Amino acid sequence: MDISNLHRAEVLVEALPYIRKYNGKILVIKYGGNAMINEDLKQQVMEDLVLLHLVGVKAVLVHGGGPEINDMLKKIGKQAQFVDGLRVTDEETVEVVQMVLAGKINKTLVKLIESKGGMAMGLSGIDGCMLRCKVKDERLGYVGEITNVNVQPVLDILEKGYIPVISTVGSDLEGNTYNINADTAAAYIAGALRAERLITMTDITGVMMDPKEPESVIPCIDLKDARQLFDTGIISGGMIPKVQCCIDAINHGVKKVTILDGRVPHAVLMELLTDEGAGTMVVKDKFALE
């Protein structure tokens, strides 16, 4: 598709007020799912991050990596097990989780950002005691419930001009390592950073009135709407923990949270820098929006 120079200029002009709005503000992106598996989409997400960084947005990337953990477990002959959507994590599994998340995936994303012209620094929730944890549920083994967040390492890296790339493992005072749900970790980190926005990338278009109809996506809900959607069963299944993490982030101080379809090319830029936006935005009170 040919795009005229005039159209390119119009796109930049449309983005200008949003660039001004988010300049100097902290934005947290939770990254995983299909956007991480598909190589073309992965390239585009990293391009979006670098562009935001270059126009003055303090972008922070928080990532999971469930599919790659599953692949590694298969290679060592171990079957993945889940309870209530959370991975059962014994001692052997938590070693795999740390190796895959804090090692392979984290450093791959750092290299990819740098290949796009950005500067990135990899961290895990263990570094600088960023994510302190306790056992969430004895049935799950080393799955962590976050008890404390120290975002000073993230702030230090942002101050030096790097994009922090954070893998979601944490530790307790005894030095045990824990696997942490990436949506939950992103919510707590964004809250502790008092982030302007949290964007959680997933494999659906957003919160939908009818899950079978992608066109029924709800552009904006507040906490009151969310309770009603829970009560009526419109938010159900795998959407329950995703929306609950959005609520947690709002309650921890994040101004706006967006559930975004990570399968859409450049979805992050569409949400932040265009009038149209994308996905479902969750806010404390939609009648009190700026």
Main attributes of the structure:
Carbamate kinase, 290 residues, eight-stranded mixed sheet, 21% strand, two-stranded antiparallel ribbon, alpha/beta, globular, 10 helices
The number of helical elements comes to 10
What is the ordering of alpha helices and beta strands? Answer: HEHHEHEEHEEEHEEEHEEHHEHE
Q: Show unreliable segments.
A: none
What fraction strand?
15-25%
Q: Superfamily at the CATH H level?
A: Acetylglutamate kinase-like
Count every beta strand, where a strand is a DSSP E run of 2 or more residues.
Answer: 14
Based on secondary structure, the structural category is alpha/beta
The first-level CATH class name? Alpha Beta
CATH topology: Carbamate kinase
| Rg result | 19 Å
Average the pLDDT over all residues and give the rounded result. Answer: 89
Based on CA inertia axes, which overall geometry fits? globular
Count of discrete domains: 1
Task: Give the name of the CATH architecture.
Answer: 3-Layer(aba) Sandwich
Strand order of the largest sheet: 5-8-2-1-11-13-14-12
The major sheet is characterized as: 8 strands, mixed
First-residue to last-residue Cα separation: 36 Å
Helix content: 40-55%
